[in-house]
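Quick sanity check, Putative glutathione s-transferase:
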Amino acid sequence: RIRRDLLYEASVCVDSENLAKSTMVVELYNAPGSPPCTFVRVVAKKLGVELKLNNFNLMAKEHLNPEFVKLNPVHTVPTINDNGFVLWESRAIGTYLVEKYAPESTLYPKDLQKRATVNRLLFFESGTLLSAQMAYFRPKWFKGQEPTSDLKEAYDKALGTAVTLLGDKKFLCGDNVTLADIGLACTLGVVIEGAEYDGLEKFPQLKEYYQRFKKALPEYEQVAAEALKLIRDMVARARSGQNPHGPPK
């Protein structure tokens, strides 16, 4: 009987923990259309973590309101508030969500060396590829200017490195999708389905990889479709001579 009681108590504890996870809502300070914000939302969707979205219009400087700056002195999005724990930087948020809510998930392997490889790829994708992509498109989107040849060269180099890192593998770390793939897909989606970049034709492997990823992780399209539409609309407004960040005329 004592053993049955212990088993019952253990099952109650497990059920209570699962209930707490299922009912916990994480606040996300979000900018619609932002690839880093999309990354966090895709990870949460895959893990079954419910998000309460607090959307900011960055062009209207809503992220500089005193309340948010007090919460995050760097005033960047995405930022989460998980029951009082505040965290920013998208890739840090992604790893945190897996470790807290789905520690057995293959998105972020427990094996030390495999996890280090995922981290390395996340750092490359966000620190090199995404940075080069934003540096290339920023003059177009914010100043109506054509990017310089140096910016194009740096962007092409980063895309080429992504091809090298992928190699002949199905996904960045092998046969399973990891956080690194979600990060790369969120960045590639901007140029494959959102903005226009002729140079992408030199990297067909990335387009093929992107399609494989979408089939393997349907949660991506469920979340990213809205963000990619915002980017397409912005590009269309810029092409027609309108303010790319304003409402269509």
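Posting the structure with no commentary besides this: Residues 10-22 have pLDDT under 50 and may be disordered.
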